[in-house]
Amino acid sequence: MKPESIDLAAKASPWGPPAAGPIGGTLGLANRVLTIISAIALMVAGAVMTYGMFVRYWLRIPTDWQDELTVFLLVGATFLSAGYIQANRGHVGIDALAEILSPKADRVRRWLADLLSFVFCLFFSWKSWTLVLEAIDEGQVTQTTWAPPLWIPYGMMALGMSVLTLQLLLQLMQKRRH
Protein backbone atom coordinates (compact mmCIF):
# COMPACT_ATOMS: atom_id res chain seq x y z
CA MET A 1 0.00 0.00 0.00
CA LYS A 2 1.21 3.46 -0.92
CA PRO A 3 1.22 6.19 1.77
CA GLU A 4 -1.30 8.91 1.12
CA SER A 5 0.04 12.37 0.43
CA ILE A 6 -0.99 15.05 2.85
CA ASP A 7 -2.35 18.28 1.43
CA LEU A 8 -1.33 20.81 4.08
CA ALA A 9 -3.42 23.57 2.50
CA ALA A 10 -6.57 21.46 2.80
CA LYS A 11 -5.93 20.54 6.43
CA ALA A 12 -8.23 22.24 8.90
CA SER A 13 -6.59 24.91 10.99
CA PRO A 14 -6.86 24.57 14.77
CA TRP A 15 -8.04 28.20 14.67
CA GLY A 16 -11.13 27.48 12.63
CA PRO A 17 -12.25 27.76 9.02
CA PRO A 18 -10.42 30.07 6.63
CA ALA A 19 -11.79 33.60 6.69
CA ALA A 20 -13.24 35.42 3.69
CA GLY A 21 -11.37 38.50 2.55
CA PRO A 22 -9.56 41.15 4.59
CA ILE A 23 -12.47 41.68 6.99
CA GLY A 24 -12.72 37.98 7.67
CA GLY A 25 -8.94 37.76 8.09
CA THR A 26 -8.91 40.62 10.57
CA LEU A 27 -11.83 39.13 12.47
CA GLY A 28 -10.10 35.74 12.47
CA LEU A 29 -6.95 37.31 13.92
CA ALA A 30 -9.01 39.13 16.58
CA ASN A 31 -10.73 35.84 17.44
CA ARG A 32 -7.37 34.08 17.81
CA VAL A 33 -5.94 36.82 20.06
CA LEU A 34 -9.10 36.96 22.20
CA THR A 35 -9.12 33.16 22.52
CA ILE A 36 -5.53 33.16 23.76
CA ILE A 37 -6.42 35.90 26.26
CA SER A 38 -9.44 33.83 27.35
CA ALA A 39 -7.29 30.73 27.88
CA ILE A 40 -4.85 32.74 29.99
CA ALA A 41 -7.76 34.21 31.98
CA LEU A 42 -9.03 30.69 32.74
CA MET A 43 -5.61 29.60 33.97
CA VAL A 44 -5.27 32.72 36.13
CA ALA A 45 -8.79 32.16 37.52
CA GLY A 46 -7.82 28.62 38.53
CA ALA A 47 -4.61 29.85 40.17
CA VAL A 48 -6.44 32.63 42.04
CA MET A 49 -9.08 30.23 43.35
CA THR A 50 -6.40 27.75 44.43
CA TYR A 51 -4.53 30.54 46.22
CA GLY A 52 -7.73 31.72 47.89
CA MET A 53 -8.55 28.25 49.12
CA PHE A 54 -5.03 27.70 50.43
CA VAL A 55 -4.75 30.95 52.39
CA ARG A 56 -8.32 30.76 53.70
CA TYR A 57 -8.38 27.17 54.91
CA TRP A 58 -4.75 26.38 55.76
CA LEU A 59 -3.31 29.75 56.75
CA ARG A 60 -6.59 31.14 58.14
CA ILE A 61 -6.09 34.45 56.30
CA PRO A 62 -9.38 35.99 55.18
CA THR A 63 -9.62 37.02 51.55
CA ASP A 64 -12.43 38.85 49.85
CA TRP A 65 -11.03 39.74 46.46
CA GLN A 66 -10.32 36.37 44.86
CA ASP A 67 -13.96 35.41 44.23
CA GLU A 68 -14.67 38.71 42.51
CA LEU A 69 -11.47 38.58 40.44
CA THR A 70 -12.31 35.03 39.38
CA VAL A 71 -15.80 36.10 38.30
CA PHE A 72 -14.28 38.96 36.26
CA LEU A 73 -11.84 36.55 34.60
CA LEU A 74 -14.56 33.99 33.83
CA VAL A 75 -16.88 36.65 32.41
CA GLY A 76 -14.04 37.87 30.22
CA ALA A 77 -13.11 34.37 29.06
CA THR A 78 -16.72 33.52 28.26
CA PHE A 79 -17.54 36.61 26.25
CA LEU A 80 -14.14 37.18 24.61
CA SER A 81 -14.06 33.63 23.20
CA ALA A 82 -17.63 33.71 21.84
CA GLY A 83 -16.63 34.93 18.35
CA TYR A 84 -14.08 32.15 17.95
CA ILE A 85 -16.62 29.58 19.06
CA GLN A 86 -19.16 30.91 16.56
CA ALA A 87 -16.57 30.90 13.76
CA ASN A 88 -16.09 27.20 14.40
CA ARG A 89 -19.81 26.51 14.91
CA GLY A 90 -18.96 25.29 18.40
CA HIS A 91 -22.10 26.57 20.09
CA VAL A 92 -24.57 23.96 21.21
CA GLY A 93 -27.09 23.29 18.50
CA ILE A 94 -30.03 20.97 18.29
CA ASP A 95 -29.95 19.09 15.01
CA ALA A 96 -33.19 17.17 15.41
CA LEU A 97 -34.83 19.29 12.72
CA ALA A 98 -31.87 18.81 10.38
CA GLU A 99 -32.65 15.11 10.30
CA ILE A 100 -36.24 15.57 9.14
CA LEU A 101 -35.94 18.65 6.92
CA SER A 102 -34.79 18.63 3.33
CA PRO A 103 -31.26 20.05 2.78
CA LYS A 104 -32.72 23.26 1.31
CA ALA A 105 -35.19 23.73 4.19
CA ASP A 106 -32.39 23.04 6.67
CA ARG A 107 -30.20 25.74 5.03
CA VAL A 108 -33.10 28.20 5.38
CA ARG A 109 -33.56 27.18 9.03
CA ARG A 110 -29.87 27.67 9.76
CA TRP A 111 -29.85 31.06 8.00
CA LEU A 112 -32.87 32.18 10.01
CA ALA A 113 -31.23 30.99 13.23
CA ASP A 114 -28.10 32.98 12.35
CA LEU A 115 -30.19 36.03 11.47
CA LEU A 116 -32.09 35.89 14.77
CA SER A 117 -28.84 35.32 16.66
CA PHE A 118 -27.32 38.34 14.89
CA VAL A 119 -30.27 40.57 15.81
CA PHE A 120 -30.16 39.43 19.45
CA CYS A 121 -26.38 39.86 19.68
CA LEU A 122 -26.55 43.29 18.03
CA PHE A 123 -29.04 44.43 20.68
CA PHE A 124 -26.98 42.80 23.46
CA SER A 125 -23.81 44.53 22.18
CA TRP A 126 -25.50 47.91 22.07
CA LYS A 127 -26.86 47.53 25.62
CA SER A 128 -23.47 46.30 26.85
CA TRP A 129 -21.72 49.38 25.48
CA THR A 130 -24.32 51.60 27.17
CA LEU A 131 -23.52 49.79 30.46
CA VAL A 132 -19.80 50.47 29.93
CA LEU A 133 -20.37 54.18 29.30
CA GLU A 134 -22.75 54.44 32.26
CA ALA A 135 -20.27 52.70 34.56
CA ILE A 136 -17.49 55.06 33.46
CA ASP A 137 -19.63 58.21 33.71
CA GLU A 138 -20.98 57.33 37.14
CA GLY A 139 -17.76 55.79 38.48
CA GLN A 140 -19.56 52.56 39.34
CA VAL A 141 -17.65 49.99 41.38
CA THR A 142 -18.60 46.68 42.93
CA GLN A 143 -19.99 46.72 46.44
CA THR A 144 -17.11 44.94 48.11
CA THR A 145 -14.13 46.22 50.08
CA TRP A 146 -11.92 45.69 47.02
CA ALA A 147 -14.35 47.76 44.86
CA PRO A 148 -12.95 47.33 41.33
CA PRO A 149 -14.63 49.43 38.62
CA LEU A 150 -17.58 47.81 36.86
CA TRP A 151 -16.53 49.06 33.43
CA ILE A 152 -13.97 46.22 33.37
CA PRO A 153 -16.42 43.27 33.23
CA TYR A 154 -18.93 45.34 31.23
CA GLY A 155 -16.18 46.20 28.75
CA MET A 156 -15.18 42.56 28.31
CA MET A 157 -18.83 41.65 27.81
CA ALA A 158 -19.34 44.46 25.28
CA LEU A 159 -16.18 43.67 23.33
CA GLY A 160 -16.93 39.94 23.23
CA MET A 161 -20.53 40.47 22.11
CA SER A 162 -19.41 42.95 19.46
CA VAL A 163 -16.93 40.46 18.01
CA LEU A 164 -19.61 37.75 18.11
CA THR A 165 -22.04 40.09 16.32
CA LEU A 166 -19.45 40.82 13.61
CA GLN A 167 -18.77 37.10 13.24
CA LEU A 168 -22.48 36.40 12.75
CA LEU A 169 -22.75 39.25 10.23
CA LEU A 170 -19.79 37.87 8.28
CA GLN A 171 -21.34 34.39 8.25
CA LEU A 172 -24.69 35.78 7.10
CA MET A 173 -22.99 37.67 4.28
CA GLN A 174 -21.07 34.55 3.23
CA LYS A 175 -24.27 32.49 3.16
CA ARG A 176 -25.94 35.10 0.97
CA ARG A 177 -23.24 34.66 -1.64
CA HIS A 178 -23.66 30.89 -1.79
Tell me what you see in this structure.
By secondary structure, the protein is mostly helical. It has one domain. It has six helices and no strands. It has helices spanning 21-57, 66-80, 82-87, 96-100, 103-138, 151-177. Helix 5 (103-138) packs antiparallel against helix 6 (151-177). The longest helix is centred in the N-terminal third of the chain and has 37 residues, at 21-57. It is elongated. Residues 1-16 have low confidence and may be disordered.
Query: What structural class is derived from the secondary structure elements?
Result: mainly alpha
Q: N- to C-terminal separation?
A: 39 Å
Question: Could you name the ranges where pLDDT drops below 50 across 5 or more consecutive residues?
Answer: 1-16
Order of helices and strands: HHHHHH
Number of domain units: 1
Number of contiguous helices? 6
Give helix % range. over 70%
Strand content bin: under 5%
Query: Which term fits the overall shape?
Result: elongated
- For the report, how would you describe the main beta sheet? none
Radius of gyration: 21 Å
* Mean pLDDT level: 86
- The overall strand count is 0
Q: Which features would summarize this protein structure in a list?
A:
disordered N terminus; single chain; 178 residues; 6 helices; mainly alpha; 71% helix
Structure described in brief:
The protein is mostly helical. The protein has one domain (21-89, 101-177).
Structural topology:
Elements (H helix, E strand, L loop, with lengths): L20 H37 L8 H15 L1 H6 L8 H5 L2 H36 L12 H27 L1
Helix pairs in contact: 1-2, 1-6, 2-6, 5-6
